[in-house]
Each structure stands twice: as C-alpha cells, then as structure tokens.
Design a protein that fits this description.
The chain is of the alpha+beta class. It is 19% helix and 43% strand. It contains one helix and eight strands; from the N terminus they run αββββββββ. The strands form two sheets. The protein has a four-stranded mixed beta sheet with strand order 1-7-8-5, with no helix packed on it. Strands 4-3-2-6 form a four-stranded antiparallel beta sheet. The radius of gyration is 12 Å and the shape is globular. The mean pLDDT is 96.
Length: 91
C-alpha cells in the first residue's frame, strides 16, 4: 500500500521535473483507496487514515474530481500553463 507521504513525494518529483523541462506529462498511479483532496489551493493526500497536505506553492490547478478516490490504476495528465502553474487532470 502506498502512503500519503509517498503519493505527495511522487507528485512533488513530477513538478520538480516540470520546472526543469516544461512539457505535458502523463503517468500512472496505483494507490487503491487513497484519496486526493484539495485545501486552500493545495492537494491533500490521504491513505490509511493519514493525511499529508502538499506545499506546491499554489501551482496545482485541479481539473479533476475533488475528492478523488484512487482506483487500482489512475493516469494523471499534467500540463504546464501560465504563471508557473500546472493543470492536473485524470484520464
């Protein structure tokens, strides 16, 4: 099972990579039962009753359901946009 911190770290790594190489990117996440929420402009990852609020400097533009309950396989599509922000969708 993936922890909330691992989910947060995984997305943080993708955002760091997008800083260095701006482009559209898709990737798969397997975290059945985990939940992705949103609070004051930042994503909140929850797994096994533990919540981790990300600190992505307000860059995350949620274009997905909130809250989003992860299934056995979710494919996320991140697209850089103006103002150093990133649109986040689920395919």
């Amino acid at each position: 099972m993936v922890t909330a911190q691992e989910l947060c770290d995984q997305f943080a790594a993708v955002l760091v990579d997008l800083d260095a190489n701006p482009r559209e990117v898709s990737f798969e996440v397997r975290a059945p039962g985990a939940v992705l929420g949103y609070d004051r402009g930042e994503p909140v990852f929850e797994a096994d009753g533990v919540s981790v609020r990300a600190s992505f400097r307000g860059r995350w533009l949620a274009e997905h359901d909130v809250p989003l309950t992860f299934g056995t396989k979710n494919v996320f599509k991140l697209s850089p946009t103006s103002g150093n922000r990133v649109k986040v969708r689920v395919k």
